[in-house]
Design a protein that fits this description.
The protein has six helices and seven strands. The protein is of the alpha+beta class and 176 residues long. The protein has two domains: 89 residues, no CATH class; 75 residues, 2-Layer Sandwich (Phenylalanyl-tRNA Synthetase, Chain B, domain 1), CATH 3.30.56. It has a three-stranded antiparallel β-sheet. It has a two-stranded antiparallel ribbon with strand order 1-2. Strand 6 and strand 7 form a beta hairpin. The radius of gyration is 23 Å and the shape is elongated. 13% of the residues are buried. The mean pLDDT is 84. Belongs to the class I-like SAM-binding methyltransferase superfamily. Trm1 family. Pfam families: TRM. It comes from Hibiscus syriacus.
Length: 176
């Protein structure tokens, strides 16, 4: 199954990894849980089975009327092709994933253009020290601009303020 066909069929984006069969079972169960919840049922996996002859994916599920429990554990499974390590990232508190998703949501503001501005570049052009992200974002917001941190670069911001405006604000913050 290709990357996009699994997304269409099961709501999961899949990358190649050595334990694809187990991942396939998890995706199958996840798809059943989502479909059942739309119909007002909750699903509990009892047993799952994979056979390479076919391949065959089977899951024994218990269905009950009612909503999914409030406390659910959603997450991501990652595999590093370089080192071979696997890691699961839970959506629970303390993992940083919630923080990342919050930042990405802030970045999705339609007023923000594509790309980001590195604060070191602003400082270099302004001939000042690098301003803190919080101080420059606060100043941008006060002037009516939209701004958020970038999830891609830790010392960068996304803003609808042009570079010239960022330079002026950085200079103002440093008393220039």
């Amino acid at each position: 199954m290709g990357l996009y066909s699994s997304l269409e069929a099961y709501g999961a984006y899949v990358r190649p990894m050595p334990y694809a069969s187990e991942l396939g079972l998890r995706i199958l169960i996840g798809g059943a849980v989502r479909e059942a919840s739309v119909l007002g049922y909750r699903v509990t996996p009892l047993f799952s089975y994979y056979s390479c002859h076919g391949p065959v994916f089977r899951a024994l599920l218990q269905m009950n009327r009612g909503k999914l429990p409030e406390k659910r554990d959603y997450g991501f499974i990652c595999y590093c092709n370089r080192c071979g390590n696997s890691q699961a990232f839970s959506m629970g508190a303390g993992t940083g994933l919630e923080k990342l998703l919050k930042r990405m949501l802030e970045e999705s503001d339609p007023r923000l253009p594509f790309g980001y501005i590195k604060l070191d570049e602003v400082a270099s052009r302004a001939k000042t020290d690098t301003p803190s992200i919080s101080s420059i974002m606060s100043a941008l917001h006060k002037e009516g601009y939209t701004a958020s941190r970038s999830h891609i670069a830790s010392s960068a911001i996304k803003t609808d303020c042009p570079m010239g405006g960022c330079i002026r604000i950085a200079q103002k913050l440093h008393g220039c």
